[in-house]
Amino acid sequence: MNQNNHSYKSSHPVLQVSSVSKSYGKRKALDEITMQINASEFVALLGPNGAGKTTLFQLLTGLFVADNGSIIIQDFDIRHHAVRALAGIGIVFQQATLDLDLTIGANLRLHTNLHGINKKESQNRIHKELERLDLIARINDTVRSLSGGNKRKVELARALLHQPGLLLMDEASIGLDPASRQSLVNYVRELCSDRNVAVLWATHLVDEVEHADKVVVLNHGKLLADTTPEQLINQTDTAGIHEAFLKLTNNKQENREISA
After folding, report:
1. Between the CA of residue 132 and those of 19, 80, 128, 136, what are the distances in Å?
2. Are 217 and 46 in contact (CB under 8 A)?
3. Most CB atoms closer than 10 Å: which of 9, 110, 160, 230?
């Protein structure tokens, strides 16, 4: 897989965010955000603390409703067809959400049950996902016994079981060792081309952004950039993504985080 090759990307939109705003009291967390992610695209989402990344994810996952604008996921407007829209999303959160005392298999079966997947199909999908992640031999191990990297893999497997068109990765690599983090990034990138999944990857870490198809930059609720890494560097007249991000946001406090 050529991670810099954009020619294979589908033009079919999996996510369309149009003029979306969200306020909490007098604070505007998102201000007229418009963006689109197509099938098989890997899109990196960058922004300082308080930029609006969390609010955007909360709107995309149906936890809150936008004040105005529309969010369409795989042709379904989340405001009017929430169940069908949300069925098209898989998500891996920054904080672990697995039951540590259940086995890997039991955790994953809970998810397939929630999505109404029958027992035979559930077993088939669980085994396939775990085989791809080299975890099938540990299906009967409790999650508590796993390393941080393997717990993250189980969460990723769970997010993919209902075969979503859009995968949301919410700072999902935080806390992982460098090898586990790189393995996770590589695997998710491969999902884009191998399984036509669109990915929105929120991160502070520049090495996770360099090979993205697009980089979206938020700051103070406003969309500052929605372009390829190469174009972002050219537009800001900088040497790399790290410098481009700092120049756009004028936020020197993020320096250590994004280059970590």
Report:
1. 38, 36, 6, 8
2. yes
3. 160
The tokens 């191998």 sit on which residue?
A: 194
User: What distance in Å separates the CA atoms of residue 6 and residue 4, rounded to the nearest whole number?
Assistant: 6
Eight-state DSSP code of residue 138 = G
pLDDT per position as a tens digit, 115-172: 999 999 999 999 999 999 999 999 999 999 999 999 999 999 999 999 999 999 999 9
How high is the pLDDT of residue 251? 57
pLDDT at 6 > cutoff 80: no
Within 28-177, residue ranges assigned H as helices are 53-60, 82-86, 104-114, 119-132, 148-160
Helices assigned H by DSSP within 161-221: 178-195
Contact between 200 and 7 (Cβ < 8 Å): no
Within 8 A by CB and 6+ apart from 77, the residues are 70, 71, 85
- Residue 183, Cβ neighbours under 10 Å: how many? 18
Beta-bridge partners for 33: 20
State percent of the chain over pLDDT 90.
Answer: 79
Which residues share a beta bridge with 201? 44, 169
Nearest to 248 by CA among 214, 225, 221, 231: 225
- For 65, the token pair is 């409703």
**How far is Cα 114 from Cα 182, in angstroms, rounded to an integer?**
31
